[in-house]
Design a protein that fits this description.
- This protein is mostly helical and about 120 residues long.
- The protein has one domain.
- It is about 45% helix and about 0% strand.
- Helix 1 packs antiparallel against helix 4 and helix 4 crosses helix 5.
- Bound molecules: iron/sulfur cluster.
- The site of iron/sulfur cluster has 12 residues, from helix 3 and helix 4.
């Protein structure tokens, strides 16, 4: 771990510690939203697994309410965290930012009309 990563991690953890309240991503009820399997369906298909995408979107919504969002995203980008949602960014989005490319989609706020469109098979009545 580089000194810069150590410093960012320490600062993030200190900021969280100073509030005396862990962020929602640390809640066992939500952890599954942050670290999940591939967005693609199993079996080598490139079809998207919408249940996984929904989990990621929910995690990003929670991050949007988090006072540590910017710090968390900076740490995860610099530390090259490979997995999970950090600071409202997916691993793919962090990789794109690290390479100096604007992510195709950076979710900061999701409005009602932006909610994912379910494939017909997942639609509820
Ligand atoms: S920004 Fe998201 S991942 Fe980072 S501490 Fe807050 S809730 Fe957790």
């Amino acid at each position: 771990m580089s000194r810069k990563v150590e410093k960012l991690y320490f600062e993030l953890m200190s900021a969280i510690g100073n509030t005396g309240q862990p962020p929602l991503c640390a809640d066992p009820e939500y952890i599954d939203l942050y670290f999940h399997e591939s967005k693609y369906s199993k079996g080598g298909s490139r079809a998207l697994d919408y249940s996984v995408i929904m989990k990621e979107q929910e995690a990003k919504l929670i991050c949007n309410l988090c006072p540590f969002k910017a710090q968390c995203a900076e740490y995860a980008i610099v530390a090259e965290e490979e997995f999970g949602v950090w600071g409202g960014l997916s691993a793919t989005e962090r990789n794109q930012l690290r390479r100096g490319r604007a992510p195709k989609v950076v979710r900061t706020v999701i409005t009602d009309d932006e909610l994912p469109i379910y494939p017909p098979s997942l639609e509820t009545e």
